[in-house]
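Whiteboard transcription, Tuesday session. T.W. wrote the structure tokens on the left side:
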């Protein structure tokens, strides 16, 4: 039986039962890249990807080449990718130009969608320069669905994340209920994103029926209402853990009437579920079996649309840690909002935090304002350490140090009382900061398991990350030049902490 300590999670997300033997923990960027390659070679009918952006280096182009090969040799294969429009259009070449050949060569098999926050429009959009305008809000989810195989990660589809930028990666093999659920999230994202046409121009989001959500406040409000209602339909569904052929056919039948030419991709992807999801699989019918030793709870966070599923669950986990229980948190950009900080400080359990050192932050040594971001996080860290001082050694803060590497891992491991192995982990795109709660689109999953092999793998994953951690104190920060923010950074921290 799955631990009752986490039964309250079912109040926030429908539990999806699966076998822990189908869940694998990857540990290194190279393994992540190889997983992607292996899936692209073997995929049969659907590829669904979402990311902040796709890089423009040779490794990324190799992946694009594999997508092209698979589409070329399998006319029934459909591929849909959702990226952030601001980040994906940055520079030249960019994500759109790298993927442009796929749009031209496979107009009925491949679709590229660019999400653009409706909060950046009009005079604000004209006033903010490129890069800085990204503080308003981004598409930050990282969804990877290949047929019924899923990978959850915080990594972007870019060279550094394939080589020397440490993140986390957990794959779910033969998990149709999770794959189908995430396909619905992906479809909602795509329906509310701009479609890239063969000439690289953008078609308005299909959910807007010809209207541009960036054109007026009225259009923006229509867009937000549509996005909220579609996501709420997914979140509140009582059937996505127990899908039947008839339900799947009914829920997706209206997608066959889309107006844009290569929207056939999305409708074909979802309709394929009918023939590729076995109705007798215990995941599909949501029934207990000997192998259902693991429960997955999908969680989305889209504060701009008042969707706060992930925020509520994270706050509950932080506040529920009791004495003799242990909670380990990782974040590439540690900037806990007040609700999470208060929950953590008021808890009774032992807390370990692993965050990036200034040297392992991607912005370290950058030119311009971005170069001051490590100072900003150092200032936020100092504030947190001062707040946690009254709690003594119950709360420990570690910094990730690794020569020639950067750090981007995020997540949570929960150890119940008397247990040496974790019973729960969170993994996905959220950094648990203000941006994740208020501005960006995020998705992660809570995994609750009693599968010993999986528990051992999760514990090993946490240990490998923390092996690069150095315990940090306020005294250490005072003695380190990299931890001394300038006066102007100190001055703007109270404002900028809501945007980083």
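and on the right, the sequence the group agreed on:
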């Amino acid at each position: 039986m799955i631990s009752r300590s986490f039964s309250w999670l079912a109040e926030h997300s429908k539990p999806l039962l699966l076998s822990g033997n189908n869940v694998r923990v990857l540990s290194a960027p190279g393994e992540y890249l190889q997983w992607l390659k292996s899936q692209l070679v073997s995929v049969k009918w659907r590829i669904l990807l979402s990311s902040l952006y796709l890089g423009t280096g040779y490794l990324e182009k190799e992946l694009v080449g594999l997508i092209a090969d698979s589409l070329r040799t399998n006319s029934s294969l459909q591929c849909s990718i959702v990226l952030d429009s601001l980040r994906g259009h940055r520079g030249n070449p960019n994500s759109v130009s790298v993927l442009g050949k796929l749009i031209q060569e496979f107009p009925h098999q491949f679709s590229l969608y660019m999400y653009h926050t409706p909060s950046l429009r009009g005079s604000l959009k004209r006033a903010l320069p490129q890069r800085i305008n990204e503080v308003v809000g981004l598409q930050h989810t990282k969804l990877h669905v290949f047929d019924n195989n899923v990978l959850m990660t915080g990594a972007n589809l870019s060279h550094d994340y394939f080589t020397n930028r440490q993140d986390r990666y957990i794959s779910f093999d033969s998990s149709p209920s999770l794959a189908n659920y995430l396909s619905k999230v992906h479809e909602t994202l795509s329906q509310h994103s701009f479609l890239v046409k063969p000439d690289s121009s953008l078609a308005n989001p299909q959910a807007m029926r010809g209207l541009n959500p960036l054109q007026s406040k009225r259009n923006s409000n229509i867009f937000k209402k549509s996005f909220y209602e579609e996501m709420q339909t997914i979140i509140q569904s009582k059937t996505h853990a127990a899908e039947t052929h008839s339900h799947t056919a009914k829920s997706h039948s209206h997608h066959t009437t889309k107006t844009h030419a290569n929207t056939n991709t999305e409708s074909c992807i979802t309709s394929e579920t009918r023939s590729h999801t076995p109705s007798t699989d215990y995941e599909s019918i949501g029934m207990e079996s000997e192998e259902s030793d693991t429960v997955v709870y999908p969680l989305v966070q889209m504060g701009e649309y008042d969707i706060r599923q992930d925020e509520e669950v994270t706050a509950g986990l932080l506040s529920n840690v009791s004495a003799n229980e242990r909670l380990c948190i990782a974040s590439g950009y540690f900037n806990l909002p007040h609700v999470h900080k208060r929950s953590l400080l008021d808890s009774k359990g032992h807390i370990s935090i692993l965050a990036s050192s200034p040297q392992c932050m991607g912005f370290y040594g950058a030119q311009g304002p971005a170069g001051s971001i490590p100072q900003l996080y150092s200032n936020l860290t100092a504030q947190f350490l001062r707040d946690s001082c009254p709690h003594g050694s119950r709360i420990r803060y570690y910094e990730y140090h690794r020569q020639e590497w950067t750090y981007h891992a995020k997540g949570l491991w929960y150890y119940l009382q008397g247990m040496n192995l974790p019973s729960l982990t969170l993994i996905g795109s959220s950094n648990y900061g203000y941006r994740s709660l208020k501005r960006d689109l995020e998705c992660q999953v809570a995994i609750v398991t009693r599968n010993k092999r999986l528990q051992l793998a999760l514990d090993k994953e946490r240990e490998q990350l923390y092996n690069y951690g150095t315990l940090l104190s306020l005294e250490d920060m005072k003695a380190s030049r990299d931890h001394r923010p300038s006066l102007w950074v100190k001055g703007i921290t109270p404002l900028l902490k809501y945007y980083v």
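Someone added at the bottom: The radius of gyration is 22 Å.
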